[in-house]
Every structure is written in structure tokens, then in C-alpha cells.
Design goal:
This is Cytochrome bd ubiquinol oxidase, subunit I. The protein has one domain. Helices cover about 65% and strands about 5% of the residues. It contains 14 helices and six strands. Helix 1 crosses helix 13 and helix 2 packs antiparallel against helix 14.
Length: about 475
């Protein structure tokens, strides 16, 4: 049934599907790991049991999300060898080490301390346990650093040469890792992860406030989440603007597609708010635009000229409609986050943060907004890079493995079925966990030493039977 389809298009759809499922879990776990570290730090500092109860509540959710993120990421790695083996051969000398560094640094760090964070509070004591939580949080950030460095190199390649076999070989690793778009994309993605987590935590707290369950814990998590939204959303908008300026410098075609500029504007470009891209006629139908505002945003000058897609050959145009709309979804979600953050500040000022039902309802509705924004931003970035895998150097059509469309289509169908069953069940379980109350009691801490054999000492009244325990 897939014989009439293009193999490259099916491979792109398959990778887009798997990466879309994968990215929502790291985006959540990166922010949640840092949130757990903040909760435990507040508990150690203030000695308030509510922070430990919230820590225990969210650490279970983190464990499930982290596990699903790891599993979904493994599938993507296999696709480099199955559907994209030519890309792996040509870009492997650069992409391979970067992804290997992610495993050697971030994944090993997370794996080494995750068990202590999840199960070791009563065994290692609160201070060492806090260190483990911080290490897990740092590990998630290091993981994001390496993955975004690899992906950013594909967007703005630097520090490489090409050998006689057509492979990209490293010349300057510093230039490769810290390529021109990497700092902007790292800041933008980490802030997006923090906002995503804040909105989920805020939605959970608002839901419990609306149902009048665990009011003190719900108020605490809701207040913390709204502080994060109010502070980070404006910073994210500024970071996104800087990222856009960097993209205009290094990937102008992507910005042209984002803005819907089919034609050049020598006397100042408008900002197209909405419209329907018409690539056949090379225009935006039913456009709603603000004259010259596009030049003001991108060039900080109302009359600054902006080039359009008419300066680029048609075969090098990215898919304008997809990029145009995904960019607007991302910006719309960002403005909504800014709005709810400002709303929460107003309610906080009036002393109604805990009692404003409409704010709580809005927070519940905004729970998935971070995931939507992350997916929309990722689509804008990746589709806007087309028709290249390595921007300006390797076309996507020349990166595909010699594999037939029916084979890719069959595996795509299998992925869709399995992913919706497995990760759908995992997501449903996470939502069930969020609907439950945080634990009411704080476990007693045992800061005493443990036997290295792995057996916890029994009660003081227990009599030894002789010999050594454990093996």
C-alpha cells in the first residue's frame, strides 16, 4: 500500500513522529529534575514537611517520565542506521562523538544517582540525598547540552572539512560544539523545559485547588509554578527574539518561511499576523499584516530591506505553510504563558492567588501549553531547515538509506500503534498520579551508618546469630 509513496517523505514522517513523542518527555523531565532539587533544598532550609511531601509526590512522576524518555530516545538512534544510513556515514565522524559524549557524561551521571534520588533518602541521609538530586538535575542539563550541540551543528555547521569520501570530518571541536546557533538554541530549549514543567505543576496545583484537596500543598505548588511562569516567560520571549536574529543571519530562508515573505521588501517588510500561505502563487492569501513591523522586529529599523524567498531557487525553499503556522502556534503559546504569568502577579498583588477560580481554570487549560509550544518550535526548526539535513551542505534527499517505501511505511504503522499503546498508557498513568494527593506524612530519616554488605541494621533489641550477614 506504500509503493506509491516517496521513501524520503515516509522516512521524514517516521522520524518526525518518533522525535515528537520523545521530545515531550525530556522537556518535562529537565524542568522537573530542577524543580525536585529546589523542593528538597527548601525542605532542608526551612524544615517544612510540605516541601518533602511535594518532592515525594513529583519524584514518582519524574521516574515514569524519565523512563519513557529513555525508551523513546533509543528508537530514534536505530533510525540513523536503518532509514538514514547515508547521513550517518557522512556526518557520523561529528554527530557520533557528540552523542557518545552525551551518554558518557549525562546518562551515566543520571543513572548513577537516579536510584539514590528515588529510593535512598532513609539510607544515605538528607544531605547526600540532596546531592544525588542535584546531580540528576545537572545530568539532564548536560544531556540537553550535547544533544542540542549536535542538532545545532546540523543547523549551522562549523569547524569541519570534507574528505575524499564525502564525509564531514572534525577540524576544530570547539567550533563544532559551540557552533553559531548553539548558545541561543540551548538557552531557548532549557527555558522552554522550565516553562513546560511550571505549567504542568501549576495545572496540577490548580486542579487540586478547584477540588479543594490538599489545599496547603496545592497552594504551594501553584504559587511556585506561577512565579516561574511570571519570571521566565518574559525572559523566554527575549531569548526567542535573539534566537530569531541569529537564525536570520545564518538561515535566512527559514525566517522567510516563518514570516511568509515570498517576495523581497526593499522599503520595509510587514509583519504578517495571519493568512494562508499559497506556495503555488507565491503569496499569503487573506493576509492580516502590520506594515513595516517585520523590519522593525528583525532589523530594528522600520525601513530596513528584507529579502524574500524570490531570492532563493524554488527547490531550496522550505515547506512554507508548515513553518508559517508552527511558528505562530509557538508564539501564541508563548504569549499565553506571558498572559497567565502576569495574571498571577495581579492576583498575587490583590491577595486572591489561592481563590481566583478563573485563574485556576485557566491554569488547568494551560497545562499542555508547554508541550504544544515545544513541538511547534521543534517543527519550525526542523522543517525550516529543509531541504537539508546538514544546512547548506547535505540535502535530505541525499541522506536517505537505500530502502524501499513499503518497508518504511510498514515500520511507521508499527511505530504509531505501539507508541500510542505504550506511551499513551504511560501518559494516562502520569495523569492518574497527578490526580492523587501528595503524601500526608513525612518519613522519618535515619542518618546512621549502614553495613556495606547491603543489610540494614535491625532494631536495637535484635540479637545477632553469629557470623556475617550478606554476601
Amino acid at each position: 500500500m506504500f509503493e506509491a509513496f516517496d521513501a524520503t517523505l515516509l522516512a521524514r514522517i517516521q522520524f518526525a513522529f518518533t522525535v515528537s513523542f520523545h521530545i515531550i518527555f525530556p522537556a518535562f523531565s529537565i524542568g522537573l529534575a530542577s524543580y525536585l532539587a529546589v523542593l528538597e533544598a527548601l525542605w532542608l532550609w526551612k524544615k517544612d514537611a510540605v516541601y518533602l511531601e511535594l518532592f515525594n509526590f513529583w519524584k514518582t512522576i519524574f521516574a515514569v517520565a524519565f523512563g519513557m524518555g529513555v525508551v523513546s530516545g533509543i528508537v530514534m538512534s536505530y533510525q540513523f542506521g536503518t532509514n538514514w544510513s547515508v547521513f550517518s556515514d557522512k556526518a557520523g565522524p561529528i554527530i557520533g562523538p557528540l552523542m557518545g559524549y552525551e551518554v558518557l557524561t549525562a546518562f551515566f551521571l543520571e543513572a548513577g544517582f537516579l536510584g539514590i534520588m528515588l529510593f535512598g533518602l532513609n539510607r544515605v541521609g538528607p544531605r547526600l540525598h540532596f546531592l544525588a538530586t542535584v546531580m540528576v538535575a545537572i545530568g539532564t542539563l548536560i544531556s540537553a547540552t550535547w544533544i542540542l550541540s549536535a542538532n545545532s551543528w546540523m543547523q549551522t555547521p562549523a569547524g569541519f572539512a570534507t574528505n575524499e569520501a564525502g564525509q564531514f570530518i572534525p577540524v576544530d571541536w570547539w567550533a563544532i560544539i559551540f557552533n553559531p546557533s548553539f548558545p541561543y538554541r540551548l538557552v531557548h530549549m532549557v527555558l522552554a523545559a522550565y516553562l513546560t514543567t511550571a505549567l504542568v505543576v501549576g495545572a496540577c496545583g490548580a486542579w487540586h485547588l478547584l477540588h479543594n484537596t490538599a489545599p496547603r500543598r496545592a497552594r504551594t505548588m501553584f504559587s511556585m509554578a506561577m512565579w516561574m511562569a511570571a519570571i521566565v516567560a518574559p525572559i523566554q520571549i527575549f531569548a526567542g527574539d535573539q534566537h530569531g536574529l541569529n537564525t536570520l543571519e545564518h538561515q535566512p530562508a527559514k525566517v522567510m518561511a516563518m514570516e511568509g515573505h515570498y517576495h523581497s521588501h526593499p522599503d520595509g517588510a510587514p509583519l504578517v499576523l495571519f493568512g494562508i500561505p499559497n506556495s503555488a502563487e507565491k503569496r499569503i492569501d487573506y493576509a492580516i499584516e502590520v506594515p513595516k513591523l517585520g523590519s522593525l522586529i528583525l532589523k530594528h529599523d522600520l525601513d530596513a530591506p528584507l529579502a524574500g524567498l524570490d531570492t532563493i531557487p524554488d527547490e531550496l525553499h522550505p515547506p512554507v505553510a508548515v513553518v508559517f503556522w508552527s511558528f505562530r502556534v509557538m508564539v501564541g503559546m508563548g504569549l499565553a504563558m506571558l498572559g497567565i504569568g502576569l495574571w498571577s502577579l495581579w492576583c498575587r498583588y490583590r491577595g486572591t492567588l489561592d481563590g481566583d477560580i478563573w485563574l485556576h481554570r485557566a491554569a488547568v487549560l494551560m497545562g499542555p501549553a508547554g508541550f504544544v509550544a515545544v513541538l511547534a518550535g521543534w517543527i519550525t526548526t526542523e522543517v525550516g531547515r529543509q531541504p537539508y539535513t546538514v544546512y547548506g551542505h547535505l540535502l535530505t534527499a541525499n541522506s536517505i538509506a537505500p530502502i524501499e517505501a513499503p518497508a518504511i511505511g510498514a515500520s511507521l504503522v508499527a511505530f504509531i500503534v505501539v507508541y500510542f499503546l505504550v506511551f499513551g498508557a504511560g501518559t494516562f498513568y502520569i495523569l492518574r498520579l497527578m490526580a492523587r494527593l501528595p503524601r500526608d506524612t513525612m518519613p522519618e530519616l535515619d542518618e546512621g551508618p549502614l553495613r556495606t554488605a547491603g543489610v540494614t541494621p535491625g532494631p536495637a533489641t535484635a540479637k545477632p546469630h553469629g557470623g556475617h550477614h550478606g554476601s
